[in-house]
Amino acid sequence: MPRAEFWQGNKAIAMGGIDAGCRFFGGYPITPSTEIAEVMAEELPKYGGSFIQMEDEIGGIAATIGGSIAGRKAMTGTSGPGFSLKQELLGYAYIAEIPLVCVDVQRGGPSTGLPTKVSQGDVMQARWGTHGDHATIAFAPSSVQECYDLAVKAFNFSERFRQPVLIMADEVIGHMRERIVVPDVSSLEIVNRKKPSVPYADFIPYLADPEDDVPPMAAFGDGYHWHVTGLTSNDWGFPTNSTPEIDKKITRILRKVDRFREDVVEYKTEGCEDADVLVVSYGCVARSALRAVRELRSRGVKVGHFRPVTLWPFPDIELEKIVADFGIKRVIIPELNMGQMFLEIDRAIHGKAEAISKTLLNGELFKPAQIIKYIEEVA
Amino acid sequence: MPREDVMKWLRTQFMPHIWCPGCGHGIIMHAILRALSSLGKNQDEVVISSGIGCSSRMPGYIDACTLHTAHGRSLAFATGVKLSNPKLTVIDVMGDGDCSAIGGNHFIHACRRNIGVCAIVMNNNIYGMTGGQASPTTPEGAFASTAPYGAVDPAFDICKLAIGAGATFVARATIAQPQMCESLIKKGIDHDGFAVIEIMTHCHTQFGRKNKRSKPMDNFNYFKDGSVLKAKADAMPPEELRGKIVIGELHRADGVEYTDRYQSVIEKARG
Fold first, then answer.
1. Given CB atoms, is A41 within the 8 Å cutoff of chain B?
2. pLDDT value of position A95
């Protein structure tokens, strides 16, 4: 039976992960994400899972990758400075194709910055933080309910595509408490990684299925022994310097997500059909923005709202279509950073509307009144 | 040629290996494979984790569940593997830079946790793969490409570090004692807790070239002549021991293995 709870966003992320099948968490304490680790430490052993507090952030994701290779669904969680440290081994998991979920509850930066105050300063780091090219899947929850729902989705996509999936929460969403309806676990759609169906003699560890470009994955201990490396490798998982083999590997790990972009991309709209002005916002900012949009619409102002739920892949084609189809003239993008997604949005709409960046970096939230003012300036 | 039961553990299809002719790492790999074979281990249940460097290329050549991780991080990966599936036999092979520089924090905490991993540290006193830079085990005064006037910092004693941090089995051998390497590795794998086996090896190409040990045999003889068994060393005055390499089983302590302790957490949580 579904049940109502009054949970914090961080708890909802942890519980959503567990309900999706997470049975391993490797982490390190850091504000404002620590509650995820605390909930995991208490809850995971009840499910026969394992929690380990590692000696540092890199150790946290290293243990998480090890846990995943040995067959568990695995998660790590952190905030700004820790997310910088995780970049090293996020890259490892992308190239070695190891499923995991990494949560970043964003706080102000750079460096130690504002440990207890909100920001959206890591959204480009989510896309480009680790060196080298890779496909990124990153969700931005905007409510406690979504923290739970997107944790389930994050695990499903990480298992399906065999790669890390990021949950880019923020301090406000992570610490906010509100009503959430927790579904019956048996009603959840759960995806598990493909296992090899061939006998060991025919097993080629990184030979991908042509229909989805994802190789089946055997856990260590499953009766298949194979090699995992962070070096660019061939189908046998062995390091290669052969140009065709390098091309094959790198293009495949990008293509395996690109091909199924429509399955991944998610966004929500409100009042776009008759809008002259569109507000695009995500995460906690969308809460203030939606209130502003609803209030102005009730006064007859033609304003709509577009919220990317996946920051990466960004719903660029979808946003451009909405702007073009409904003749939107101006797009306002309020963000708790210096306009990181503004650049992406400006690129996406190809000059079909004027893109206006509004930024806030002092650790405060946009108030609805402030966003109303931004809309009234151009409406 | 190695014995047939040892050949079974080799991925000959991935050879030739990257090591220089005369490198000591092959002696260590052979000892590991003899140990695994004589313990009757199953390739599907043996995980060999490594970091980055010459020594860390070893798992690629071993036909088991092998995990070539990032520089310094192998023990943290291995910790996750062991905790995720405690039934697996987990061995971690590292170089001196991996273990005591970039991975130093992971190393001391793996010792402290007493997790059931057998860590084999191949100490050749240098960063070989990158061209001979000083490592934390380069002896003070020895030459390296980043220590052109001799290493300024004092060297780490990896075994003392492991004992201090709480490892429950600590041993040392050199590549001049291949049989002892094998028997210590067997004990380390069988040990129910965190085992550290430091094996002194050489990089004649990088360390030897700058430190008057440029031929493989110079190094072999250096280790053979410089090694002292622990029992004998215990009776020797410190001044006589200076510059010697104390070999054998150095330390054993009681302690419950980490994943066993975590199992009791699961039982407690489930009431």
1. no
2. 98
Taking the domains of chain A in order of start, what are their residue ranges? 3-187, 267-378
Gap between the Cα atoms of A250 and A230, Å rounded: 12
B46-50 and B65-68 strand pairing: parallel
Q: Identify all chain A residues contacting B80, using CB atoms and an 8 Å cutoff.
A: 24, 26, 52, 62-70, 74
**Beta carbons within 8 Å of A376's beta carbon, 6+ residues apart:** A296, A301
Q: B89 — contact with chain A (CB < 8 Å)?
A: no
Q: With an 8 Å Cβ cutoff, is B20 touching chain A?
A: no
Among candidate residues A216, A224, A101, the one with its CA nearest the CA of residue A156? A101
Domain residue ranges of chain B, discontinuous segments joined by +: 19-269
User: What confidence score (pLDDT) does residue A302 get?
Assistant: 98
Distance from CA of A65 to the nearest CA of B (A): 7
Would you say A16 and A36 are in contact if contact means Cβ atoms under 8 Å apart?
A: no
Q: Kindly report the CATH class assigned to A3-187.
A: alpha beta
Reported as a single tens digit per residue, the pLDDT across B86-121 is 999 999 999 999 999 999 999 999 999 999 999 999
Q: How far apart are CA A135 and CA A257, in angstroms?
A: 6
Which pLDDT tens digit goes with each residue over A115-147? 999 999 999 999 999 999 999 999 999 999 999
Q: Do A74 and B80 touch (CB under 8 A)?
A: yes
Q: Around Cβ B105, how many Cβ atoms within 10 Å?
A: 16
pLDDT at residue B2 greater than cutoff 90: no
Q: Do domains A3-187 and A267-378 have the same CATH topology?
A: yes
What was the ipTM of the complex prediction?
A: 0.97
Q: How far is A56 from chain B (nearest CA, A)?
A: 8
What is the dihedral sign for C-alpha A227, A232, A233, A239? negative
Interchain pair A59, B79: CB under 8 A: yes
Identify the bridge partners of residue A179 per DSSP, sorted by sequence position: A6
Contact check, Cβ <8 Å, A221/B65: yes
Q: Could you name the CATH architecture of A267-378? A: 3-Layer(aba) Sandwich (3.40)
What type of residue is A183? P
Q: How confident is the model at residue A379 (pLDDT cuts 50, 70, 90)?
A: confident
pTM greater than the 0.90 cutoff: yes
pLDDT tens for residues B60-72? Answer: 999 999 999 999 9
Which among A222, A244, A245 has a CA at the least distance from the CA of A235? Answer: A245
**Burial class (CB within 10 angstroms; exposed 0-12, middle 13-18, buried 19+) of B243:** exposed
